[in-house]
Design brief:
three-stranded mixed beta sheet, alpha+beta, single chain, elongated, RNA Polymerase Alpha Subunit, Chain A, domain 2, about 20% helix, six-stranded mixed β-barrel, Ribosomal Protein L25, Chain P
Amino acid sequence: MEDKNLELLDLKAEIRETKGKSAARHLRNNEAVPAVLYGPKTEPITLSLSTPDLTTLVRVNGSSGLFINLAIEGDAKPVRTVMLKELQMDIYGLKYLHVDFQEIDMDERITITVPVEARGESAGVKAGGLLQVIRRELDIICRPGDMPEVIEIDTTDLEVGDAIHVAEIDLGENIEIPHEVDFTVLTIVPPAGGADEEGEEELEEEAVEEASE
């Protein structure tokens, strides 16, 4: 896999002196979002973000795998390179509640969650089987510049009963998938009520067991 130039987005923040639920509520009522910045070599810094700025950034770029040049007003560093680690929203998905940023070193490997995407129509699906994606995201360990946008899995040659495990996914020598090699990512199961219903149940039980690990 070839290296790609990682796009760093721009976002501004301010250092937040006040803490607690009432202070966070006050921020949200005034077009701001409470946030925190931390990292292996970074003491936690409480921040506030402009709600319109955050809304625009997420609307254009989504919220997964974002790397940002974060300009913090009043900070000793004019700009910090960060990863958007977690974005909390209310139960209706309408209001931002809190944002976690992790400061990163572009030359060091970090753990990143990347979506899984199945490509192609498998032989098993053409024969009446069903594609079952057990893991829609996988953790990977790599430098930020080596991160793929998605993990693409070609399902074209899969028959009913076939499965793809972590051991069969090759993302190149610069990327590690820190899961067990027999970890099932997707499978082609028989149609409901098919002759191989017992086999389908076994696959589903395997998926449940892996999901609970």
